[in-house]
Amino acid sequence: MIFKHKNNFPQSFFEILPIEWQESIIPYWIEYKGYAKIYVLEEEEEHIIAGGIVFSICPPDMTDFKEKAEDWFEKGHLYIGYLWVNPDRRNQNLGSEWLSRLKKLDPDQKYWLTIEEERLKSFYEKNGFLMIETLKIGNDTEWVYSYDPVQ
């Protein structure tokens, strides 16, 4: 399994994402590719089995709490978004493997992210992320998580 940067060929990563995720990132990619990096886990023949995007500025879908996001970036955190594992490869620790390899790229780097699905809380907590706050956006709830290697 190979962990690699995929900004030069982002389409292969975008194609594995759910349609609604594709619709929220593809139209903005030209603007954001200078501030975001796609990292993927690939098997033989460049078959992507997992991936995600690391942003150094607010991603396009972060309109509801942009001010809070700016605070995280000012504190030196990068934002992890669009972390995805192919459904036929889930429950094989690939999401954890992706996060582990990302952390090894820069062991001092801090990260933050938001989740909309409560069932993902335990996944991020077992990978060293701490829940910071719960946000209510209309009828929706999101949880903000942070990873700091010196916690």
Main β sheet profile:
7 strands, mixed
**What structural class is derived from the secondary structure elements?**
alpha+beta
Strand arrangement within the widest β-sheet reads 1-2-3-4-5-7-6
**How confident is the prediction overall: mean pLDDT?**
89
Summarize the structure.
The chain is built from 6 helices and 7 strands. The chain is of the alpha+beta class.
Descriptive overview:
The protein is an alpha+beta fold. It contains six helices and seven strands. A seven-stranded mixed beta sheet has the order 1-2-3-4-5-7-6. Strand 2 (36-43) and strand 3 (47-55) form a beta hairpin. The longest helix has 12 residues, at 94-105. The model has no long low-confidence stretch (mean pLDDT 89).
Write the layout of secondary structure elements.
Blueprint: E1 2-5, H1 11-14, H2 19-25, H3 29-32, E2 36-43, E3 47-55, H4 66-74, E4 77-85, H5 94-105, E5 110-115, H6 121-126, E6 130-137, E7 140-147
Parallel strand pairs: 4-5
Antiparallel strand pairs: 1-2, 2-3, 3-4, 5-7, 6-7
Q: What are the salient characteristics of this protein?
A:
single chain, 151 residues, alpha+beta, seven-stranded mixed β-sheet, 6 helices, 34% strand, globular
